[in-house]
Write a structure and sequence with these properties.
Layout: E1 2-5, E2 8-11, E3 16-22, E4 30-37, E5 44-49, E6 56-58, E7 66-71, E8 76-81, E9 90-98, H1 103-108, E10 119-124
Parallel strand pairs: 2-10
Antiparallel strand pairs: 1-3, 3-8, 4-5, 4-9, 5-6, 7-8, 9-10
Amino acid sequence: QLQASGGGLVQAGGSLRLSCAASGFIFDDYSIGWFRQAPGKEREVVSCISGTDGSTYYADSVKGRFFISSDNAKNTVYLQMNNLDPEDTAVYYCAAELGFTSWEVWKMGLLFGSWGQGTLVTVSS
């Protein structure tokens, strides 16, 4: 089970840190990542951290602004979001994959059939 939290309302240029708390599975064996879905748009991948070697991956739209990290002791993955833009407004969801196929597969968004509640991030201009 994954529980996303940390969303909120922030002004453009501000920062937020999202948390994804995992339970019920062996955290170290999984890759954890973030997707987002803006109103009227398709869900898109934002970032993920590989459970096999700790490599991190980012969508082009967030590179250099968002940073993903993992605290294995707390079974939690964080997404630090800096220099937020109104275009970042979306519901953010976390997802987990046993092992790691590839970033290309994550970008296709086909690995995950169900989604949790997500956390809403609203960036005002």
